[in-house]
Design brief:
four-stranded antiparallel beta sheet; five-stranded antiparallel beta sheet; globular; disordered C terminus; Aminopeptidase; 22% strand; acyltransferase activity, transferring groups other than amino-acyl groups; alpha+beta
Length: 192
């Protein structure tokens, strides 16, 4: 499956994505709100898991590229989290993103996420899509808010895959219902 927006192509993983994805995951600033940057082998394993989850569940994070240049920018997409320890709001479908620093500040995450929200609500018929991140990740939180997602501080949580005293354990949860999405100016994006 491929989604097209004004500037972006959201597409399946390719072998040629391995090297730029490994560079992205090795960047300490990109990975600032994750426990550690990834090695090339860990990055390759993440692609393999994304492909497998797409084959099994029909969705997972997918690459985005700039339409004009074909440049790999990172990934955006829908995912059904499957941690060994469940999230407090499981089961759910999340929307998430990870972009290279060169792609920051250009609105790519919001543009791609809007296409995925439309797909999730209109094609998959989802009732709700969530997003979550480390409390201090202001960039991602601003994207969530631009998408029309809302946060209830009572739903903030400690990520179950991190020790409670880990500096990145504190997370915020944002939600968007299909009804709220339909009522907002967020549902009108091109898709193919």
């Amino acid at each position: 499956m491929e989604l097209i927006t004004e500037r972006l192509r959201l597409r399946p993983w390719r072998e040629s994505d391995r090297e730029p994805f490994a560079r992205l995951n090795a960047d300490a600033e990109v990975m600032r709100y994750f426990p550690a940057p990834l090695t090339p082998a860990e990055s390759d394993a993440l692609i393999a898991r994304a492909r497998q989850r797409t084959a099994e569940a029909g969705l997972c994070f997918q690459p985005i590229e700039e339409k004009r240049s074909g440049r790999f920018l990172g990934f955006v997409g829908l995912n059904r989290p499957a941690y060994p320890v469940p999230l407090p709001f499981d089961p759910c479908v999340e929307i998430g993103w990870r972009l290279s620093r060169a792609a920051w500040g250009k609105g790519y995450a919001s543009e791609a996420a809007r296409a995925w929200l439309r797909f999730g609500f209109e094609t998959l018929g989802l009732e709700e899509i969530v997003s979550f991140t480390f409390t201090g990740n202001d960039r991602s939180r601003k994207v969530m808010e631009r998408l029309g997602m809302t946060r209830d501080p009572a739903e903030d949580f400690l990520h179950p895959m991190l020790a409670a005293d880990h500096p990145l354990a504190s997370h915020v949860l944002y939600r968007l219902s299909r009804a709220a999405w339909r009522g907002g100016a967020f549902s009108h994006v091109a898709e193919r």
